[in-house]
Amino acid sequence: MDQFENLTVETPAERSAGELAPPAPQEQAAETVRNEHREPTYWQDQCKRIKKYRKLLWFLLPAALFTLVFSYLPMLGVLFAFKGPEFNLTKGDVLWNLSHGTWTFTNFLDIFVDKSFYRAVGNTLLINVIRLFICFPLSIFIAVQLSELKNQGLAKTILIIISIPNFLSWAIVIGIWAGLLNPDIGLLGRVTGHIMAKDAWFKPLVVFFSAWKGAGWGCILFYSAIMAIDKSYYESATLEGANRLQKMWYLTIPSIMPTIALMLVLNISGMMAAGFEQVYTMMQINAGVLEESQIILDTYLYKISVVNRTNIPFATALGVFNGIIALTLMLVGNKITSKTMHRGLW
Amino acid sequence: MKNPFQKNPNKIRESKLDIGLSVLNIVLLFAMVLIVVLPLLNYFSLAFNDGNFNINVVFFPVRPTFAAFKYVLAGDGAADFWRAFGNSVAITLIVTVVSNLVEAMAAYPLSKRDCPFRGGILMYFIITMLFSAGIVPIYLVMYMFKLLDTIWSVILISISNVTHLLYFKTFFEGIPTDIEEAARLDGAGDLQLFFLIVVPMSLPIIGSCCFFTIVGTWNSYGSALLFISESAQGKLAQPLAYYIYLMLQNKTLDKNNSWLMANGQNVEAAAMVASIIPILLLYPYVVKYIKSGLQIGSVKG
Fold this sequence. Notes:
Number of strands of chain B: 0
Low-confidence stretches of chain B: 296-301
Oligomer: heterodimer
Shape of chain A: flat
Number of helices of chain A: 18
CATH architecture of the largest domain in chain B: Orthogonal Bundle
Distance between the termini of chain A: 35 Å
């Protein structure tokens, strides 16, 4: 019966179910006649659709429940950011702590006088900006180089090989490079010395490791965008006398500009996260040396909220603050893409 | 996919610049392949090498032996390794099946243009992608449910995946409605329609999403770092990537075992190689995916 429902204009039973306040009985007959020719109101329309989809809506339930418990319930945890410093899980459980103790706003103010916070933000932004200037163009560069190959079968084989590191975990990637850079037995380390423990090398190595792991896989998107360019453009460019460099610069790059812009915005939206697993593993491998100067927001948050656990409300406040900055960046990014490319990030 | 320059009918001869560029192009690409492959060869050949001769290894084992593998897979290290391996298999299987099933089911009603409250429900999911309250609240939720130090904390936190929901939704929107109408006339219910018509028609996207879930879950240990401590109880719930992470810090090394002290790095490399094998089994899929035109990269929500 469901598929016919949108053919009929409206039945009285549905209409009365859909109205917020049913009309008085004496007016009802006249209403019915008039309603036959009127557009259904918002609520009437929704009720009709709910009726049509009443069984299908159950499909949403499992996902909605998981989201509720593991995404929205933690959002209530924002409340902990307003608790006083006497919050202590040894005294009572989570709910007990929520209902006892004082409320305060100073946790958020404390963020701004925290020196480690500024250092963490600075390091996070610095790492991500270097990534943006090195890893991101590198992926585009590899994609253009691959598309320039005469033998596209070879190009795909190269693509398959250079995307291997993307399928290794960070522990393995860092383990491999720690082995190579080991000053005693490593192939490279015997020449370079123990650079993984040197402060000045930390950020360059973070960027290098992300490039090594991600550049090959990251270029797939650009490569497929280049492959989608109409080949006749290249033919006419050749007839006009354009050389390869000119075709690359004036044809390939402008054609994949939408993809580049989209990925750029996505990258900028993720500016506050510099890769927790990677940076934390690199820090731990040095067994705590140089930690302060290498701290990024994610590792700092992890340290104060899971490792130290001395001031849980402050750690919550810092997490919430971080979340708000990330949200702002995402919204700005979405605004930019929908303004310039008429399509949002989601 | 042929290169456009190759079938150019006008046969304009390549200039010297163009030839130079092609040479540079090939040289650069091969340099990149070497940068990727040589470190892998160097490190993984340690897995097959005798620990006393590690310093001589360049790209191949110099004293081939399976001692390190024997230690990891069947010797003293086997209990820890296989427990971590089992945990990872369980986590990856449950997350892949449940997450993709749940998200695909949710995406199905949302793919209908006239689904009631469609915008609102979508917003409900998308908000979780945009804002998170940080790690303390989620830690406290797991603490409340007494899920810390169990694999369930790692599993449950990974189920919700809004990106995949959006992928599924976009794909389902492209399925012609006539097919569903016809099946409905034949008396198919919603469940039958979904599992017998929609899912089989969406196998490409479901396959891709499952693949990404498998790789992502197998390799991630960020949530394990968060929820699973190094205590005796936490040890039982370590996933494999986390176990290797601990290995890197020599936390699993027994200082009294002199063979192990000499072969520590070889044992590490052997454990890594063993942990990659399940992902290697999936690699033909990657190859097929890259060869067949790389469609998923352009699918968007």
